[in-house]
Design a protein that fits this description.
- The chain is an alpha/beta fold.
- It folds into two domains: 238 residues, P-loop containing nucleotide triphosphate hydrolases (Rossmann fold), CATH 3.40.50; 199 residues, Nucleotidyltransferase, domain 5 (2-Layer Sandwich).
- The protein has a nine-stranded mixed sheet, with helices on both faces. Strands 14-13-10-11-12-15 form a six-stranded mixed sheet.
- α15 packs across α16.
- The radius of gyration is 26 Å and the shape is elongated.
Length: 507
């Protein structure tokens, strides 16, 4: 059995575990939950026996605050196929139906009705096989009703559902990665508003990053948000994520890779099955469904886990020389300043660090704008605090006025247009080589890390360079661009003709 924890998990304290109904839930699951088909874990009709990792997951999922209310409203649990997702989801749905709020509304949701019925049908068989539950229950084709409490459990799918009158208390959204758009998920999330302590639990494998609209898929958006919470970049106790996955560069035919991604490896699923599937399944499909790795329409730029090991804690030296890389936007995007401490000897490595970022947040309105005065002041403050700053290299698009103002105040502005393919290709290559050869260091900033992980590589007759995965993607790469600019200038001998002052008519 695998003993590996989730690769990504949002923080839940032991204190919050103490305020938990998890013991009650686990007792219910093991009393009323059943295996509904023969597997290597046992025969159909056997009671479910929770594994240690499942118990820990339930403790995390149903942690409570000090008032006794559920801590989480939205939860994302990611694991590959054949790890007992459906049976666990069915038993949790039944717990909410029978022991949750009176008048509760429990839903099994999925992209297609047949998929949604998998969790529901398992739950229905559990009820049919227990006389105590049957006595309290009316069974219908797509619904289970508890007459005494007025609670009901229904099946919904993205392809056919009514938006009217839904007030969910507990939702199990199966294989969220497959939903074609956000509509059903958002209906469920918004419908929970009147409930005291609802939960929308999505249990899914990885999938493609974009949906039918060309935007980030619902599951991938939640996955990225969960990473931000897990890293401490965002504090949101209402959101929980536990995600098992293998590293993207791990050999996909290696049993150690399978064990890291599958919490039930060798227990609820068999190693022999993985061996057989790895031989006859295309690598991308195997990595998605058995290693729980996200696939992309373009290749990721940096190999997984090549960046984070280069992080070091380092104080900036006021006497050192620096380059600032600047990539700016005005609205609907992100503006970032990344610094690079210039190495003073062959043995010293360049050191990249985030100075500041202005990034639109989900709660911001459509009229959100970058505060240009704040950006100007941040650059000016850095140059004043570190007087040996040699350059502020910037992409001038839409920022000519600010750069001219700073230049007029003595800031050493250098124009570095990131839209120039002839500049970006060698600069990207230089950055990539320094990462792969471990010739640079950085401050480990999570926003810079996230933007680098969002960068895809485009290869054409000019050579490879970073781009967004698709034109309208909300996964930003601005910090990656600023970092590439900063490192390029830090490692390049400054030539006079490369310094292009801002035209005077902007001043």
């Amino acid at each position: 059995m695998s003993n590996y924890p989730p690769r990504w998990i949002t923080p839940v304290t032991r204190h919050e575990h103490d305020f938990s109904r998890a013991e009650q839930i686990m007792a219910f699951v093991e009393e009323y939950g059943l295996q509904t088909k023969d597997t290597i874990a046992g025969r159909s009709g056997n009671k479910l026996v929770l594994r240690d990792w499942q118990k820990e997951l339930i403790r995390d999922l149903f942690a409570e605050d000090e008032t006794g209310k559920l801590l989480h409203r939205t939860a994302l649990v990611g694991m590959p196929r054949k790890n007992g997702k459906s049976a666990l989801g069915s038993a949790l749905a039944l717990w909410s139906l029978y022991l949750g709020d009176n008048g509760g509304e429990v839903y099994s949701c999925a992209a297609e009705k047949e998929q949604a019925r998998i969790v529901f049908s398992d739950a229905k068989r559990m009820v049919e096989n227990n006389p105590d539950l049957m006595e309290m229950t009316k069974l219908y084709r797509d619904a289970i009703e508890v007459v005494s409490t007025g609670s009901i459990y229904r099946v919904l799918s993205a392809e056919a559902f009514s938006k009217e009158g839904l007030s969910p208390t507990f939702v199990v959204f199966d294989e969220l990665h497959a939903t074609p758009n956000r509509e059903l998920f958002d209906v469920m999330a918004l419908g929970m508003g009147a409930r005291k302590e609802p939960m929308l639990l999505s249990i899914t494998t990885a999938g493609v990053k974009t949906d039918s609209t060309g935007q980030d898929s619902t599951a991938y958006s939640l996955y990225q948000y969960g990473q931000r919470v897990a890293r401490g970049e965002v504090e949101d106790p209402s959101f929980f994520m536990a995600w098992w996955e293998a590293q993207s560069d791990a050999p996909y035919q290696d049993p150690k890779t399978w064990a890291k991604a599958n919490p039930a490896f060798g227990d609820l699923n068999a190693e022999e099955d993985f061996v057989a599937m790895a031989r006859r399944t295309p690598e991308a499909e195997f990595r998605t469904k058995r290693c729980n790795q996200w696939v992309s329409s373009q290749n990721a730029w940096l190999p997984a886990d090549s960046w984070l090991p280069l992080a070091v804690s380092k104080e900036l030296d006021p006497e050192a020389e620096y380059i600032l890389g600047f990539d700016g936007s005005f609205n609907q995007d992100c503006t970032v300043i990344v610094g690079c401490q210039i190495p003073q000897s062959e043995d010293e490595k360049p050191y990249l660090f985030l100075v500041k970022a202005w990034e639109k947040q989900p709660e911001d309105t459509d009229d959100w704008r970058v505060d240009t005065l704040d950006v100007e002041n941040e650059i000016l403050k850095f140059v004043q605090n570190y007087p040996k700053t040699r350059e502020v290299a910037c992409d001038p698009f839409r920022w000519q006025r600010s750069m001219a103002v700073l230049q007029d105040k003595g800031v050493p502005i250098v124009e570095w247009p990131s839209t120039s393919v002839r500049r970006m290709v060698p600069a990207c290559q230089k950055f990539y080589e320094n990462v792969m050869e471990e010739k640079l260091e950085h401050d480990g900033n999570p926003l810079l890390t996230r933007h680098l992980s969002n960068a895809a590589v485009k290869i054409d007759n000019y050579g490879p360079r970073i781009v967004k995965e698709h034109r309208h993607s909300l996964r930003r790469i601005d910090a990656a661009v600023a970092g590439i600019i900063a490192l390029d200038r830090a490692l390049t001998t400054r030539e006079k003709e490369e310094v292009r002052p801002i035209p005077q008519f902007f001043i």
